[in-house]
Amino acid sequence: MTLDSSSTPDNLTYDEALAELQGILADMQSNALDIDQLTTRIQRASALLDVCQEKLQRTEAEVQAVLKRLGLEENDG
Amino acid sequence: MNDSDDERVIYTLSQLGESLRRTLERATEGNAMWFRAEVAQVKGSGAGHVYLDLVEEDKGTKLAAMRATIWRDQHREIVRELGDAASDVLRKGAEIVFSARVRYHAVYGVSLAVETIDLSAMLGEAERRKQATLLALRAEGALERNGRLPLPRLVTRVALVGSPGTSGFRDFAVHLLCNEGNFRYDVEVFSASVQGKDATPSLRHALVKAEAWKPDAVVVVRGGGSALDLDAFNDLELCRTVADLGVPVLTGIGHETDLSVVDMVAHRAFKTPTAVADFLIDRSATEAARLQDALAQISVRARGRLGVEHQRLASHRQFLQLHPAQTLNHAQVMLQHLRERLHATTTQVLERHVQRMAQLQSTLNALRPDRTLQRGFAVVRRDGASVRDASALAVDDLLTLTFHLGTAEARVTQVRPANPVDGTAAADAPTLEPSNHDA
Known about the structure:
The complex is a heterodimer.
Chain A: H1 14-29, H2 35-76
Helix pairs in contact in A: 1-2
Chain B: H1 13-28, E1 33-44, E2 50-58, E3 61-70, H2 72-82, H3 86-89, E4 95-105, E5 109-117, H4 119-140, E6 157-162, H5 167-177, E7 186-191, H6 199-212, E8 217-221, H7 236-244, E9 249-252, H8 261-265, E10 268-270, H9 273-367, H10 369-374, E11 379-382, E12 385-386, E13 398-402, E14 407-411
Parallel strand pairs in B: 3-5, 6-7, 6-8, 8-9, 9-10
Antiparallel strand pairs in B: 1-2, 1-4, 2-3, 4-5, 11-12, 11-13, 13-14
Helix pairs in contact in B: 5-9, 6-7
C-alpha cells in the first residue's frame, strides 16, 4: 500500500479506495494492527467502504440509465 | 408498238421492273441468302407483317440501306424460335444476322423478305466480343480490382445505377425500401440507359456520378433480358470504369445463363436486382443481430460486474462489522488471562514470603534468651543494663538476675576480670553471693 492513507477517501478512485480498504482488512485479519490503531483504522476502513458503496451505486444508476437508453434505441432501430 | 419507224426501243417502267426482277431472280437463283445488318427502324402493320429499315454504317457513315419485310407467318415462326430474345432482336439499334430472299417490286423497288433470324450467329459474335474484353481486362489486371475494395459491414448509402421505370429497377427499389427488417437505406438514383447503342456511355457517365456521391456501394441493375441484350455490359470501356471505381460495385443485371463481363469485374454479382436487395438486407440484418448481441452482452456484463462489486463490498462490510469485536474480545481474553496469571504469581510470591518468614521466625525462636534461661542460664543486669564483662563491676554493686522463672537481687562480693587470652575468669573475679552455678 503506497497510497497516502490520510487523503480524503472522496478523492480516491473506486479501485484505490477498494485497494486501501482491502489492505486494512488484511492487516486486521493478520492481527498486524495494535489496539491503539484499531479505532482509527476501522474508521478509515468504514469511510473507504462508504465511498466504494456510493461510487458503486452511482455507477449502477448510470449504467441502468445507459442500458435503458440502449433499449429504447433498440426499439426504434 | 406503233412507232415502227423509230429505231429506238422504248420500254415501259413495268417492263424494266420485270426485267430487273428476272435478272435478280437469275442472280440469286431464287434462293435465300445470309445477311448482317443493323435495324434502323421497326414498324408493324395491322395485318401482322413487320417492316424493317436496315442500314450498314461505318463510324457514323451510312454505307447502305434497304427495306426488309417479315411476313406475318414468318414473323410468327421467328418469334416462336427466338422466344424471349425476339423483342431484343427486332428493335432499333440491334444488329441482326438473318436469311432473306431478295425481292424486286415494280412499285416498291428492292427489298428483303426475311425468313429466319440466326440468334446463335449473333450470340457467337457477342461472345467473341465478350472474350476479347475479358482478355484485355485480365491483361490489365483489372478483373479483381473492384473486388478487392472492402465492402462496409453496413451498407446504407446506396447509389443505384439503372433505368427508372424498368422492372428490374422497380424490383430492386421496392424490395430494398420495403424490407421486413425496417432497415433504412439512403438510395440515390443515377439513371442510365441499359440497352441499345447509348447504354455504354450512359452507364459510364452514371457510374462516375454515382462514385462522386460517395456511397457505401454502387448497385447496377437491369431487368431480365436475353443474352444478346447484355452486349452493352461486355463493353471494354464500361468494364474498365467499373474496375477502376473507388466504391464496391454490386450488379443485378438479370440473366439466368451467363455472366456479363461487368458482373465479373464487379465487387460481387447477383442474378437479379432482387437478389442484390436481399443481400444488402441480409447484411443489415446480420449487423443488427450483432448489435443486438453486443447490447445483450453489455447489459449482462455490466450487471455481472456490478453484482461482483456489490458482493465484494458486502463481504468487506461484514468483516468490518464482525472483526473489531473479535479483536477486542481476543484482547479481553488476553487481559483476563494476564489478570489470572498476575493473581497466581502474586499468591505464589506471597506464599514464598510467608514461608521465609516462618523460617526466620523459627530461627528467631531458636535464638530467643528465655530458651537459654530455660536451660539454666541467667541474665545479669546492673541498673537495668545487661552485664557482659565482669571487669565493669565493682564490689557491692547490686545486680538483678533474671532466670527462666523469676528474678533475684544479688550483691557483688568479688570481681575477677576475664583473662585476656582465654577469656576465663581470673582468680580474683567477683563472685556472687547467691549464685546459681549449675547453669
